[in-house]
Amino acid sequence: MRKKRIAMLGPGTFSEESVHHFLGTTDYEYVPFKLISDVFLATASGETDYSVIPIENTIEGSVTLHIDWLVHEVDLPMRAEWVYPIDMNLIGLPSITAEASVSSNETPLERLESGELKLVPPASWSKITKVFSHTVALAQCRRFLRTYLPQAEIELMGSNGESVRLVRELGDPNVVAIGTMNAAGMYEMGVLASQIQDNPDNSTRFILIGRDEIEFASAGKMKTTILVTPPDDYPGALHQALSAFAWRRINLSRLESRPTKRKLGKYYFYMDVEGSKDSVLVRAAFEEIEAIGCQVRVLGCYPSYNYEVQRHEGNSSLS
Ligand SMILES: O=C(O)C(=O)C[C@]1(C(=O)O)C=C[C@@H](O)C=C1
Ligand 1 within 6 A of 13 CB? Predict the structure, then answer.
């Protein structure tokens, strides 16, 4: 039997690291793409069976571009979600890291109580002219960049793996990248500073999307993601929709509004409902919401996995 093919941003990305952690490296064939649009389209076209999509980050919040792709561009159910810890690193050519490095993986940077980094940057950092970064990674390192590399121009890349690869290819010691430790190793680069994200406890939520059902080794907590579009002429429809969950004591772990893209001021509500769409209570809540004229579209009903990690002790497990 052929292995199921999984599309993801890569190589050398957090998406790759996280899916290897979640599904292992042997049972699936992983297919890396440079752009997230290609990750979505690979599974939509049938070239791959599933796609890995980063959907939410501790510091940056929702990755709205990816949510919009799920809602407007492809029709691929969510099959699982998992959380993966994210440490951002400043990566440069090995020739400059000997004098310019302030930390290694083993000795993370010190922080003040406020969470700010306690750092005396090496003089050579003032020569850095450019930082390559993925937009979501950039949003996680704003404070670091503002404080220690204010002179550097930012150039956005399709992924963190691609940022590191391009610095390597360019060969300019004054151009650095934000990226993963794996990418630094893969392209034989040096690490100037590790854990440069604004909050040391930083994680990203990833989802797996695809047409076919998929089985996992352990049972996760079931979640259902829906889109609720209220009718135009019904004041208080959102309040009523929320109370359909509240009085049944069904927890909503996420609620976001996004434009329908059809008319200014018209929104749909993206909701993560704790529980399976097949449970009696959740089904009844959906029926009640539809009865008041709201449209309910199920984006997926899937197991959710947490990542328990003892940071910096190399001891991790999915639960
Ligand atoms: O570029 C990568 O390494 C990715 O996997 C993408 C991505 C994202 O889009 O959120 C994944 C996790 C991090 O939060 C930053 C970037």
Answer: yes
CATH of the domain at 286: 3.30.70.260
The three-state secondary structure class of 295 is strand
How buried is 217 (Cβ within 10 angstroms: 0-12 exposed, 13-18 middle, 19+ buried)?
Answer: exposed
Instruction: Report pTM.
Output: 0.91
Residues 253 and 191 in one domain: no
Please give the C-alpha separations between residue 77 and each of 40, 44, 49, 50, 239, in angstroms, as whole numbers: 12, 11, 12, 10, 27
Report the C-alpha dihedral over residues 94, 100, 103, 106, rounded to 10 degrees: 30
> What is the chain's pLDDT, residue by residue, as a tens digit (319 residues)?
899 999 999 999 999 999 999 999 999 999 999 999 999 999 999 999 999 999 999 999 999 999 999 999 999 999 999 999 999 999 999 877 656 677 544 455 666 666 666 677 888 899 999 999 999 999 999 999 999 999 999 999 999 999 999 999 999 999 999 999 999 999 999 999 999 999 989 999 999 999 999 999 888 899 999 999 998 877 888 999 999 999 999 999 999 999 999 888 889 999 999 999 999 999 999 999 999 999 999 999 999 998 864 444 444 455 5
ipTM associated with this complex: 0.96
Ligand 1 closest atom vs CA 180: 3
Write the residue with the smallest CA distance to atom 13 of ligand 1: 137
Q: How far is the CA of 204 from the centre of ligand 1 (A)?
A: 8
**Ligand 1 pocket, mutate which of 6, 8, 13 (most atoms under 8 A from CB):** 13
Q: Is 304 in the pocket of ligand 1 (CB under 6 A)?
A: no
- Pocket of ligand 1, candidates 14, 64, 86: which has the most ligand atoms within 8 Å of its Cβ, to mutate? 14
**Ligand 1 within 6 A of 57 CB?**
yes
Give a yes or no: residue 50 inside a domain. Answer: no
Dist CA 162 CA 152 (whole Å): 19
Residue that is last in its domain, among 174, 201, 228: 201
